[in-house]
Amino acid sequence: MSLSEKFLVPSPTRTAPATPVRRRFGLITGILILLAIIGVGAWVAGAELWASYHVRATHAALAKQDYEAAREQVSKALRGRPRSADLHLLAARVARLNERIDEAHEYLQRCQELQGGISEPLKLEYLLLDAQTGRVEMVVESLYDYVRRDHPASPQILEALCLGFRRARLPGPAGRCAELWLEREPNNVQALICHGACCGEMGNYATAAKDFERAVELAPQRAGCKQNLAIARLEMSQFQSAAEVFAQVLEAEPSNRVAQVGLAQAKLALNEPEQAQVILDGLLAEESDNPEALVERGKVALQLGRFDQAEQWTRRALEADPNNHAAVYQMELCLRSAGKLREAEEISQQRKTLESEMQRLQALLGPELYNDQPRPPSVYHEMGTIFLRRGNKDQALHWFFKGLKADPAYAPTHRVLAEFFAKEGDEERAAQHRAMLGPREKEAAGKRDEGSER
User: Fold this and answer.
1) Domain boundary among 300, 330, 364
2) pTM of the model
3) Hey, CA dihedral for 358, 360, 364, 367, is it positive or negative?
4) 425, 372, 432, 427: which is closest to 401 by C-alpha?
5) By CB atoms within 10 Å of each CB, which of 56, 68, 330, 373 scores lowest?
């Protein structure tokens, strides 16, 4: 038999034996299905392990108060557990601590959807978000009730209250919250920074310095710790120590404007005007209209006996910030030194007005105001008016709107805001405030607005 005759050539009318092939196909299919099941299981297990790892990393970052790192980690964890209500709640907390308010609201809403309602932890996080975003007076009692009951989240609650009161520019209540926070967590760096900042804002620089010193011991690389310490020491006239700490800040952050001006101030106080000049000239080469730097540059010229230059630098500072008290006072000195007595007297009157306003603000913002009870709208209106006259629009609007919370129909504030927004070109908001005035006041406000436009 030839070799060709050994090949099997199936007849068109016959079916070749198929049983062995079908068996092999069934075996392969079964193996593939099994592998697919194993693969899906492995993927699910891997995703869970991935999520668990990043959840732990999130909590570790929160413990270090590295909120940006926590945000990065929790976003990765959500990829592995996209339908976890607890993880969305954690992500909301992280977003709140990063001041990403819209993001925090989105996570809370998604958490509520996944839970099918509002749980107690979710309710608490909503309250914390309210406290931190300008509604602290509305939620302080509800939140402080958790603290009285020694809730496990008391440190987080006190942190949110502290940040909320600081946002409302009330260092008194903010400081009290920070004290309670430190009683529970004495080595919490954020609590030390907040308490120190509140003490510094109220003029208690010695206590502020102690807080910042402890914060630097615990977290020497933490942003802001050394800068705050240097500022406190500068205010305490510890000029050499302040200069050394400012220099350390600038080693890590060469373009830190606050540290540059602070170091120059310390050098001037140490009678080293040439070194201060080098620092300030470098800063002004990059930011020519920095009023604080311009004032200090004028001081350098005064120390060196260059009175004409001192006047020029100080005039530039006043052009950048007409209500800068240090610049006004320094300009008065320059003019008197140059024998320009009439102009010096005009500047002197401006200085006295600024000082009178500052004294009034201190009285309004004094300890009697640092409590949780609302004040008459006239108090907030007066504060807003002073800040607006001084060119501080953000502060002015803060106090105007705070007054309207106390009395939504308070006409003097609506009148000022109608004029303010008309000048700003926001006719829609101007009209909203005019609508809250009586007929005669509306007519008067409209005429004033037309005059300001002309």
Assistant:
1) 364
2) 0.73
3) positive
4) 432
5) 373
Residues 6+ apart with CB under 8 A from 106: none
Q: What is the DSSP string of 320-339?
A: H-TT-HHHHHHHHHHHHHTT
Render pLDDT for 226-244 as a digit per residue (tens, 0 to 9): 999 999 999 999 999 999 9
Q: CA 396 → CA 121, 386, 429, distances in Å? A: 36, 8, 16
Segments in 188-272 forming alpha helices (H): 189-201, 205-218, 225-235, 239-252, 257-269
- Per the structure, the complete domain to which residue 445 belongs is given by 374-454
Which of 337, 364, 391 is the C-terminal boundary of a domain? 364
- Distance from C-alpha of 439 to C-alpha of 434, rounded to nearest angstrom: 9
Q: Say which amino acid occupies 32.
A: L
Q: What angle do CA 142, 180, 153 make, to 5 degrees?
A: 55
**Separation between Cα atoms, residue 399 and residue 146, nearest integer Å:** 29
Q: What are phi and psi of 360, to 5 degrees?
A: -65, -40
Looking up residue 394, the CATH number of its domain turns out to be: 1.25.40.10
Amino acid at 128: L
287 residue type, one letter = E
How many CB atoms neighbour CB 78 within 10 A? 20
Inside any domain, residue 141: no
Task: Determine, yes or no, domain membership for 249.
Answer: no
Cα gap 294→316, rounded to integer Å? 7
Report the distance separating Cα 234 and Cα 112, nearest Å.
49
Of all residues in the chain, the percent with pLDDT exceeding 70 is 84
> Residue 399 class from Cβ within 10 Å (0-12 exposed, 13-18 middle, 19+ buried)?
buried
Q: How is residue 243 written in tokens?
A: 């200069």
Q: Does 183 map to a domain?
A: no
* Dist CA 394 CA 133 (whole Å): 15
Beta carbons of 159 and 190 less than 8 angstroms apart? yes
Q: What is the pLDDT of residues 355-402, one digit of tens each?
A: 898 888 777 766 444 455 667 899 999 989 988 888 888 888 888 998
Kindly provide the b/e burial profile for residues 143-181, where b requires at least 16 CB atoms within 10 angstroms of the residue's own CB. bbebbeeeeebbbbbbbbbbbbbbbbebbbbbbbbbbbb
